[in-house]
Each structure stands twice: as structure tokens, then as C-alpha cells.
Specification:
Keywords: DNA damage, DNA repair, Glycosidase, Hydrolase. It holds the Pfam family UDG. InterPro entries: MUG/TDG, Uracil-DNA_glycosylase-like, Uracil-DNA_glycosylase-like_sf. It is a single chain. This protein is of the alpha/beta class and 172 residues long. The chain has helices spanning 23-28, 39-45, 84-101, 111-118, 152-159, 161-170, and strands at 14-18, 66-70, 105-109, 126-127, 137-141. It has one domain: 3-Layer(aba) Sandwich (Uracil-DNA Glycosylase, subunit E), CATH 3.40.470. The protein is built from 6 helices and 5 strands. The chain has a 5-stranded mixed sheet with strand order 2-1-3-5-4, with helices on both faces. It is globular, with a radius of gyration of 15 Å.
């Protein structure tokens, strides 16, 4: 299984950070490629994209000021296959990426991703009081996995805070 490419550049509005690529993403070379993953539907319904993109268009998010990466590059069937060592290495690499690219917001797609990155246990949804890398805003959103038990409208409601937060930061 091959890792997939990040879609990053300097001064993005938002970088979305997932756990790691799925097997399907590794096979296709695109983020959130599993048909059971609701990422693209969530972004559209939350008003982050003007239409529902498909995974093969993942690089087009850059045109909208959004990037993509993962805390761990190795594809797995499930996140519970990721080792502590991989998380530790991924956490350090992710910090370097955030420091290099300086996005306004880092959106963690799942509380577990942010727990691994920040070392914090009790994490609310949305904007975090403190960010791991100064000068950026850490934002925690529900995982887009089809395994998540939250209702879709509740997930979308949390993601809808992202454009509002982005617009508020741009006006400063």
C-alpha cells in the first residue's frame, strides 16, 4: 500500500487532517476515496465547497483555500492498526507542516486525530482554546467515517462553523 500525496501550500485557510489513508485511498491515490466516507458530502452541505466534489478532485480544494494531509501516512484498513510510534512520528511531522505552511485553521477530522496530535484527552467540538502551533487555530470536527454514530445534520452543523471562523479571521 502506498501513502497518498498531501495537498498543501502556504497560507491556506484550512488544512484538513485525517488519521491516515484508507486502503481505497491508497489504491486510487486520493483522499477520502472510500464510498462509505461522507467527507465530500459534509463539505458540500456545510457550505465549504460549492458542489459535492468526488475524491478524484481532492487537489481542487487548494483552489478553495483548503489543503489535506494525515497524521500518519501509512494506509490501513482501520485507524486502530496505527502504532504509537507512527503517531509520535506523525505528530512531529504534522507540527512541521503546520509551521511551514501557516494555515489559518487546522481542522482535525475526528477527535482521535486531535488527541494524538495535542496529547489532550477532553476535547470539545469546534475551535480549541489553545492551538498546538501558535498563529493557527485548531478546530476539531467529527470524523467523516461512515462508522460515526452522530447524525449527519449534527456533523454538518459543526463543520458549518469553519467558514464562519475563516471569515472572522480574514476580517481581522
Amino acid at each position: 500500500m502506498e501513502p497518498i500525496s498531501d495537498h498543501l501550500m502556504e497560507n491556506l485557510d484550512v488544512i484538513f487532517v485525517g488519521f491516515n489513508p484508507s486502503i481505497r485511498s491508497s489504491e486510487t491515490g486520493h483522499h477520502y476515496a472510500n464510498p462509505n466516507n461522507r467527507f465530500w458530502k459534509i463539505l458540500f452541505e456545510a457550505g465549504i465547497t460549492p458542489r459535492k466534489y468526488v475524491s478524484s478532485e481532492d487537489y481542487k480544494l487548494l483552489e478553495l483555500g483548503c489543503g489535506m494531509t494525515n497524521i500518519v501516512a501509512r494506509p490501513t484498513k482501520a485507524a486502530d492498526e496505527i502504532t504509537k510510534e507512527e503517531y509520535q512520528q506523525g505528530k512531529e511531522e504534522l507540527k512541521k507542516k503546520v509551521q511551514k505552511y501557516r494555515p489559518k485553521i487546522v481542522c482535525f477530522v475526528g477527535k482521535g486525530v486531535y488527541q494524538q496530535y495535542s496529547g489532550k484527552k477532553d476535547i470539545p467540538w469546534g475551535k480549541q482554546k489553545e492551538s498546538v502551533v501558535r498563529g493557527t487555530v485548531d478546530f476539531v470536527a467529527p470524523s467523516s467515517s461512515g462508522l460515526v454514530r452522530m447524525k449527519m445534520d449534527e456533523v454538518v452543523r459543526i463543520y458549518k462553523e469553519l467558514p464562519l471562523l475563516r471569515d472572522g479571521l480574514k476580517s481581522k
